[in-house]
Amino acid sequence: MAQLNAGSLFEPGWDERRTEIIAWLDEVRADVVCLEEIWSDAHHPPTARWIAERTAIDYHLAFGGLALAEGLWKEPTLRFGAAVLSRWPIELHEVWRLPVDPDDAPGDRFLHGFPNVLLHARTAGLDVFATHLTGAPHHGRHRCHQVLALDRLVRTVRGGRDGAVPFGQRQPHPPALLCGDFNAEPDSDEIRFLCGLTSLGGTTTFWQDAWRVAGEGPGLTQDWRSHPLAARLNVHRKRIDYVFVGSPFLRMGDAGRVLRAEPAFHEPRTGVQASDHSGLVVDLAWPQRPPD
Fold it and tell me: pLDDT tens digits, residue range 128-149?
């Protein structure tokens, strides 16, 4: 699978960059793709649809977006969120707004004006979740609220599909996939919570960070030295984009084992950078994968 914050609304050069994204997708040929910072309005289809319709793979598309705060954008019908592309039909999809602390910095338009979404798409037996957490470096407190909320939502959607069988193996249901721009570095509380390394609010969970499991090196996904758009934002070098995979523990057929994690969308294929972010491509053990 592949993950990228595409930056289709605010960052310049989208017409050229979307062609670069297609070049990368044709190269990695991912079964499932998660894209963030996708938008749509009454006059334009989701920006990910242009990409889905032009790749070498006949992708199906789910888009989930929510409105910006009133007055932030000239077109009131604009919806901003995430998209999932899949080789197989998408059976259902739904989107939720992730919470922030309403009493904290009520005048912070960056915090309260832009929706942070969790998009769920079910396809070929997979539950795929794409998300984008609040972005400012000092918003860690809010991101902690958000990872707690998204973990609860995933558990609700999954129902009993992740339940352990005492003294036996779990059925080889593929674990959930959670991808996105988390705007949080690996040693932050919010990411350590997802990896089962700390508790939040008296709660623990466990997801595999695909890069931590199978990647090599620091895995930076924003680097001002190599990404002109990141340099324009004057952000420090960091790893903030992730593919999380639900626990493979005792799953039959090695379902959910992370086999490979490599950078993607990080080097130009058409002469331009795809985004101010780099992305990831991840291979998983999936014994029930249907034919193309």
Answer: 999 999 988 889 999 999 999 9
Torsion of CA 28, 34, 35, 41, to 10 degrees: 130
Distances (CA, A) of 22 to 55, 69, 100, 267: 6, 31, 34, 13
Q: Which pLDDT belongs to residue 105?
A: 62
Write out pLDDT tens, residues 82-122: 999 999 999 999 999 999 887 776 667 667 678 999 999 99
| Other beta carbons within 10 Å of 89 | 9
Angle CA 17–22–27, to nearest 5: 125
Phi, psi of 151 (to 5 degrees): -65, -40
Please give the single-letter amino acid code of residue 141: R
Do strands 60-67 and 90-97 pair parallel, antiparallel, or not at all (unpaired)? Answer: unpaired
For residue 180, the one-letter residue type is G
CA distance 209 to 213: 6
Please state, in angstroms and as integers, the Cα–Cα distance from residue 74 to each residue in 40, 67, 69, 185, following that order.
Answer: 13, 12, 11, 33
Q: pLDDT tens, 75-91?
A: 999 999 999 999 999 99
Query: Exposed e or buried b for every residue in 184-222, given b needs 16+ CB within 10 A?
Result: bebebbbbbbbbeeeebeeeebebbbbbbbbbeeebbbb
